[in-house]
Design brief:
The termini are close together. By secondary structure, the protein is an alpha/beta fold. It has 10 helices and 13 strands. The strands form 3 sheets. Strands 3-2-1-4-8 form a 5-stranded mixed beta sheet. Strands 11-10-9-12-13 form a 5-stranded mixed beta sheet, sandwiched between helices. The mean pLDDT is 95. The protein binds zinc ion (ZN).
């Protein structure tokens, strides 16, 4: 009898591999390095080799779910700059070697959003949105317990809402003024540097290569006025994105995750306060909470896609 599920989160530096029970309980997890040389040609082989060398025999595996850092349609990744991939059909590449047709693939932010509904902050809610505030801004929309991908795999790409209309900074996507340029860890630094260059306010912060989100939060905690202003703008932009997504898909709950969310309740409360001011009346009470699963959200969500 098959009784195990693998949830695999392929990132640009490491691949997280989770072994789950049929009921979705995490049994064990591992990390292997992502070999991005030679256009990431070895990545799937490395995963298959690891799984075949594991003590669980292949015939005991119900199926495999994958999260990847790029847009996905069905089981095909359209492109993954971080991995060096162009189009890769993961199911086609792995079904023979893993002797399994039960293979599912999602964008990593979408997988993380699903993961939080399986065992994290949005557990028990069928309609949710997760926003991941890291180096960039990722997000996923879950409706009726399913990931919404859209026709080009770009549904829920909140990081690329055009929010700044005058003198927006260039975004990795090629446009200017995307949410990601002001609402990620880099975005907070951008806002702070802009304020430092623009105002005569005295601050303990300096715009330098070393400046990071944690330093800005720490300065705000020490009542640095400029840092407080920067975080106020930063959280306003995040609230604006929540304003847009709540009137687009009307989720029950919005989950805030990613490295920046380590700033915790003070960050969350500022986002909620801004949202209360700008949210549309009938969605003003949408719950906004911090993510719970941290880096494991991706493997939970990947495993959660597998049909049992
Ligand atoms: Zn963009």
């Amino acid at each position: 009898v098959s009784e195990f599920i693998y949830g695999i989160d392929i990132g640009g530096t490491t691949i997280k591999i989770g072994l789950f029970s049929k009921l979705g309980t995490l049994i064990n997890k591992w990390e292997i390095n992502t070999n991005t040389t030679n256009f990431g040609k070895n990545i799937l082989n490395d995963i298959a080799t690891f799984i075949k060398s594991n003590e669980v025999p292949l015939e005991k595996v119900i199926g495999y779910g994958f999260g990847v850092p790029g847009p996905v349609i069905d089981t095909t990744v359209l492109n993954c700059v971080n991995l060096g991939w162009n189009q890769v059909d993961i199911k086609k590449e792995l079904s023979t070697v893993l002797q399994n047709e039960n293979i599912f693939v999602a964008n990593d932010a979408n997988a993380a959003a699903l993961g939080e509904t399986k065992n994290g902050a949005s557990k028990g809610f069928k309609d949710s949105v997760m926003i991941t505030l890291g180096t960039g801004v990722g997000s996923g929309v879950i409706i009726d317990n399913k990931i919404i991908t859209g026709s080009n795999g770009a549904a829920g790409e909140l990081g690329h809402i055009k929010l700044i209309h005058d003198n927006g900074l260039p975004c990795g996507c090629g446009n200017n003024g995307c949410l990601e340029t002001v609402a990620s860890a880099t975005g907070l630094k951008n806002i702070t540097c802009h304020l430092l260059n623009d105002s005569k306010k005295i601050s303990t912060l300096k715009c330098s290569k070393e400046l990071n989100a944690k330093m800005i939060f720490d300065a705000a905690n020490n009542m640095d006025e400029l840092a407080i202003t920067a975080i106020d703008r930063f959280t306003y932009y995040i609230a604006t994105a929540i304003q847009i997504i709540t009137v687009s898909v009307n989720p029950e709950i919005v989950v805030i995750g990613g490295g920046v969310s380590k700033a915790g309740e003070p960050l969350l409360n500022k986002i909620i306060n801004h949202f209360k001011n700008i949210g549309f009346s009938s969605v003003k009470d949408t719950k906004i909470v911090l993510a719970k699963l941290g880096n494991d959200a991706g493997i939970y969500g990947a495993a959660g896609m597998v049909k049992v």
